[in-house]
Design brief:
The chain has three helices and no strands. By secondary structure, the protein is mainly α. The chain folds into two domains: 1-44; 53-87. The relative contact order is 0.08.
């Protein structure tokens, strides 16, 4: 369900004139459960379905993923600091 909501927000971003701040906050509110679940996946013991990483290792995995995402978005539009079209 969360993925569907985020897909709707992304679609609204590209295909509507809705306020970008409003869209940001909608996405922010609905991605918080995903972030918590991702954190649980990284840090829970293997017996409970997690990867049993410590806090430092989980933080490093998250940081690397953020860097990769930023690098990919930057390559799509190198003129803009976040890789998005300037309006």
């Amino acid at each position: 369900m969360t993925a569907l909501i985020i897909a709707v927000v992304v679609s609204l971003h590209y295909f509507s004139r809705l306020n970008q701040v409003l869209l940001f906050w909608i996405a922010f509110i609905f991605t918080r459960p995903f972030g918590a679940t991702f954190g649980d996946l990284l840090t829970k013991p293997l017996a409970k379905g997690g990867l049993d990483l410590g806090a430092v290792q989980a933080s490093l995995v998250t940081a690397v993923l953020f860097i990769i995402i930023l690098f990919i978005s930057r390559r799509k539009n190198p003129a803009h600091p976040l890789g998005q079209q300037a309006e």
